[in-house]
Specification:
BirA Bifunctional Protein, domain 2, SH3 type barrels, 5-stranded antiparallel sheet, about 25% strand, binds biotin
Length: about 325
């Protein structure tokens, strides 16, 4: 996205329609060039309507991410990022951008993107990331201990998101092990967000984590996602900046605790949001496939599954609810 396109978005971000002529004058370009830029923005997922006789207007007003607003919201929590806060209009993946920062700048830095052209989910999946609608956020954190002790980090990230949402009165969210954030009424729970934690470093430590969070605030109705999804369209009153700041604030408070005490202090809270607590689920893992009752998580972030032979500790895999 070039600077003219970014300026164009700012011109359209208000509630009023703006004529092609006004846009052209503001940008110092022809109406035809304006039209070409608008086409590019539509391709990124912006819904721009052309209203006869009035000009162009966004289908819904847009609140762009703003560094000062987020910094101010953190300040209200008496918090400050140890690293940098970077807002990207367009990027391939905020997780990759975070990992590409100089190593000494990664700890405590946050990158938030308006649009990702190659957003990544777990297991090589794509994370659909249209412009200006959702939250795509990555935070870097360095831990002194080794990779093995960070297994619970994506569970912690999911917990901070549902707790941030609860602070806005959104309480119909659930956590699906290991990293999904669901919304709705059981059994019709749909995916609202997810966490992708990527770790590099030494087995014995220190190591660097990139904590990536994707959260759907408003997806286009015709979006092509191969699973049932949810968003927060019924809560358009919530500011994207305030919600992003709330998630960052909760990460800033939780990560030092996790760093010194691991997942233990968070187990109870995670289990309270557990989507399938006490339900019979099917686990499909790299070397196991089993059916059992999902009991909850342990201090290593493993899922405890009970079948007729006892309680099994599951470290990786995908679970699905077994239909009755
Ligand atoms: C999943 O549920 O599979 C995890 C989705 C994680 C998506 C986020 S969006 C911000 C960060 N950048 C990425 O490319 N992925 C994560």
């Amino acid at each position: 996205m070039n600077p003219q396109q970014i300026k164009l978005i700012h011109l359209l971000a208000g509630a009023e329609a703006v004529s092609g002529e006004q846009l052209g004058v503001a940008l110092g370009i022809s109406r035809n060039a304006v039209w070409k830029h608008l086409q590019k923005l539509r391709g990124l997922g912006l819904e721009i309507q052309a209203i006869a006789g009035r000009g162009y207007q966004l289908q819904a007003p847009l609140e762009l991410f703003n560094k000062e607003t987020i910094d101010a919201a953190l300040h209200q929590h008496s918090l400050q990022l140890p690293g940098r806060l970077i807002i990207q209009a367009e990027t391939a993946s905020s997780n990759d951008d975070l990992k590409n920062l100089p190593p000494e700048q990664q700890h405590g830095s946050v990158i938030i993107a308006e649009y990702q052209s190659a957003g990544r989910g777990r297991r090589g999946r794509t994370w659909v990331s249209p412009f200006g609608r959702n939250i795509y956020l990555s935070m870097g954190w360095e831990f002194q201990h080794g990779v093995n002790q960070l297994a619970g980090l994506s569970l912690l990230a999911g917990l901070t998101v549902v707790e941030a949402l609860a602070s806005f009165g959104i309480t119909d969210t659930r956590l699906k092990w290991p990293n999904d954030i669901l919304r709705g009424k059981a059994p019709a729970l749909a995916k609202l967000g997810g966490c992708l934690v990527e770790i590099s470093g030494d087995i014995a430590g220190p190591c660097q984590a990139t904590i990536g969070i994707g959260l759907n605030l408003r997806l286009p109705d015709d979006i092509d996602i191969d699973q049932s999804w949810a968003d927060l369209r019924d809560r358009s009153d919530i500011s994207r900046n305030t919600l992003a700041a709330e998630i960052i604030a909760r990460l800033l408070q939780a990560l030092p605790v996790f760093s010194s005490r691991g997942l233990e202090p968070f187990i109870e809270a995670w289990n309270q949001y557990h989507a399938y607590a006490g339900e019979t689920v099917h686990l499909c893992g790299p070397d196991t496939s089993m059916t059992g009752v999902a009991l909850g998580i342990d201090k290593h972030g493993a899922l405890l599954l009970q079948d007729e032979s006892g309680i099994k500790t599951i470290h990786s895999g995908e679970i699905s609810l077994r239909r009755k």
